[in-house]
Amino acid sequence: MKDSMKIGFALPQFNNQAYGIAHTATFASAIEEAGGASLWVGDRNLAAVRPAVGYGGQGNTIPPELNASADPFVLLGVAASATRRVLLGSHILIAPLYAPVQLARSLTTIDVISGGRLLPGFGIGWSPEEYQAAGVDFTRRGARMEELLDALDAIWRTDPAQYEGTQLSVPEHHSPLKPARAPRPPFYLGAMSERALRRVARRGDGWLPLVVVPSYVDIDGLVQQRAFLNELARQNGRDPRAIDTVLRVNINAGTSTALVADAIKEIHERTGIDHFMVDSMYDVDTVDGSVEHAREVLHLVDKG
């Protein structure tokens, strides 16, 4: 792979690909064999029929491609058992929707099955209806995220484990089963706003930005955001080099693989980002088609 770039791909989870999830293990092993570096899931608790807030916090509509959604934890578990090398990530889990003990248990299980290959990525989401369905206060999601990270840290590092905050309470309990990666899996955090970037700078092990090819590829914006993140990290006494980046690459319908590969190479050259996660759910309908799409992207990026 060019300059040791890492190219990962979304597991079949959304849109028409969701109806092919019975082939998740085959997909995962095929991507690993083709040279993919990582496999990823997203998270959609539900897509509201009449959303108060639209996709990405904009407008009042949600793309129909998000209506069908498979469970991210199950998919990662299947992929973990079907592979030996690729990293397994979430870009992103809407973490405040989950109770900390159950979230820790699911992620620990995946990390142990995979032998320590989990990259858990978290965000706070934008859909009030998803929070309503989970019985969680949407207006306090940022504060809940902060406490959730503290609770996960406690559960993963200590035994017995407990946590007491204003949003979350975890009673003292036996916690002997730990993730394979000590002392805990890294926290990757989605962030575009200043507040979210400040959270990454304070406590993130990785940053999860996003582009859409070709409709939203703001390389200058990525450079500026990363520079701001680096400065915030230094203000918090951290080495910016300790904060990894994995860039999600969504693809508009009808986009050629050549254009996707060219965008990845240009972003890499201008930003230094070396790990990309490609999601073809808007452009490819079948699991077999997604495997072939991934192979073409890997080939074109590798050609240089």
Automatic annotation (TrEMBL):
Answer yes or no on keyword RNA-binding: no
Matches recorded under InterPro entries: Lucif-like_OxRdtase_Rv2161c, Luciferase-like_dom, Luciferase-like_sf, SsuD_RutA_monooxygenase
Q: Which Pfam families does this UniProt record tie to the protein?
A: Bac_luciferase
Keyword field contains Translocase: no
Keyword terms of this UniProt record: Flavoprotein, FMN, Monooxygenase, Oxidoreductase, Transferase
Which segments of the protein form a coiled coil according to its record?
A: none
Name of this chain's protein:
Hydride transferase
Q: Which organism is it from?
A: Streptomyces xiamenensis
Q: What is the lineage of its organism?
A: Bacteria, Bacillati, Actinomycetota, Actinomycetes, Kitasatosporales
